[in-house]
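Hi R.,

Here's the input for the 5'-O-[(L-methionyl)-sulphamoyl]adenosine complex you asked about:
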Amino acid sequence: MAETFYVTTPIYYVNAKPHLGHAYTTMVADSITRFKRQRGVDAFFLTGTDEHGINIERAAAARERPVKEHVDEIVEEFKSAFAPLGIEYDRWVRTTDSFHEEGVQTLWRQLSERGHIYKGHYEGWFCGYCNEFKEVEEGEDDPLCPIHERPLDRVAEESYFFRLSAFQEPLLELYRARPDFVRPGARLNEVVSFVSGGLKDLSVSRASVKWGIPVPGDPNHTIYVWMDALMNYITGLGWGNDQFADFDRYWPALHLVGKDILRFHAVYWPAFLMGAGVELPYRVHAHGMWLSGGRKMSKTTGNVIDLNVLRKHFSADMIRYFVLREMAFGQDGDFTYEALIDRVNADLADGLGNLASRTLTMVRNYFEGRPPRNFAEEASGAALVREAVEQARARFDEEFDALNFSRALEALWSALARVDKFITDNQPWKLAKDPSARAQLESVIATAYEGLRLMVLLAAPAMPATTREIWNQMGLRGEPLGINPRETSWGGPLDVSEIGRISPAFPKLDKEKIMADIEKEKSAEEKSLPVEESAPAPATPKAEEAVAPQKAETISIEDFAKVELRAATVLEAERVPKADRLLRLVIDVGEAEPRQILAGIAEYYAPETVVGRKIIVVANLAPRKLRGLESNGMLLAASVGEEGRPVLATFTEDVPNGARLK
Ligand code: MSP
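And here is the predicted structure with 5'-O-[(L-methionyl)-sulphamoyl]adenosine in place:
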């Protein structure tokens, strides 16, 4: 049986729009899942949404919407923000799913039967944003949450309690016996010192909150949101419900969490599980925060990095590479667009992209497109390059497995620089002119091609789309994520005949232009109504009109059948001189030759961000000329907001070019 692996992200509160902070953990979980699968491990990746509690009830009330309708909407926003980032989870748990509710109630019953829950009275202060009771100094009348700086709610009501105090010793014993249960080590120390300071019993029900899972046998109470939410990690595998049967196969989990919610995962969660007699997680790994302008990025602070802005200027793989490379997993990282652009230009455009283009161009020019496989190491430094790549491969796997993504990528990129320098040092363009240097030339190009091949395989979990593109350009069959790098060796047999069409995988970004555009967008956004985390603005009739579909006359199915909609991939994109709105695209519609189309999206999409994208086109539109250029089709995009911002239509699954939509 294959080794198994189970990774989870926190489940996200549905009271605010998704931002980079949420997408970050999810991209990390996606990359590690792909990494494991590529190495033959049977991996499972769970994510989802945390939908109960007073805050969500309030957010819906402020919008005058039924709570379920409100949460359904935000869940869709999360899903549609994650999909274009190449995030492919195995299951999405919503705490409003009935299987989850069933599982949570099962846990409650077990804890209750085992004597870990009792009824009492609670008086104290509660923060709806943290979903946590807060200690407040005697005599404070209007205390604020120290994290959110917002007023706390006074709660005085009947409540059920979980005997957390009884778990102090078992928890300390757990941290002693399994020091890797919490990572990194510094975080473990914080947890140990918190638990050593003494644990009070935890209030685990609320009589005044209606939007939650009812306490079994006492429906006037709802179950505390964190007890409800943490359970997703096992209900999502089928524990306590009949919906799924994956618990025995995948549990225990690696939980990826932000350091701000470590205590819930490293203290309460194992205590609940111990109480119910369920096996504990494998590990809780806490990562740092993305800061923006020196402060934690959060909607409350108003400094979030909007995923729409990011996606508009940067491809998914650029973003994925940047977050993995830039933030030492575990420490805080500062996000700036400038740093992102610099990284993309240095590491991707001038680094990986350039190495791929120059290597493949030489295969095309000097070897008629057939990669040479001469590993006799005739060229000077060839043996050293092979060694450097082999060392980087070992180091990469070790670091990535230990969740040190930044170091793993650093190791890979330093080998990449070695290969690049090796090409330059050997001056293949000179060797190509000298027939007696043929073996040397073969050795240079074979070494560069081989180094590139092995490095592309390793980079694939982080950058699934562009590595696949480079792989295809290299003329290699299959797809990199389907090939186990540990079973691939230098100079091993290859399934390749000729290289494909060469095009830059990462065009260089124009820093000044992008920064100016982002500034413009920011000021436009500031003028529009912000969506508040606490109380989203009520939907005004105007806003509703803007999204309501326009009424149109009906058409027959025959009318619709006349429109030939097909899937296509953008191969090239460039601005049309003197036309601010137009991009000229060369697209592959699965026909013998690529086609040219013109699209009025230049104000919203930089050319480099659309290259490689899967789009939908009207393929049988009569050709027409714009600015002297012929357009042979039209791409589909949603028209959003009052200004009609185009958002390209695409697929969330692989679709071959030319596939018809009907
Ligand atoms: N719903 C709870 C988690 C329940 S898990 C059983 C929650 N939700 S959250 O939406 O507020 O946060 C989810 C995750 O996003 C947390 O891990 C949090 O650390 C992370 N981040 C939120 N802002 C972040 C940054 N600025 N940077 C990195 N991660 C951040 O807490």
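One thing worth noting: The chain has three domains: 4-163+201-251, 338-533, 559-661.

Cheers,
M.
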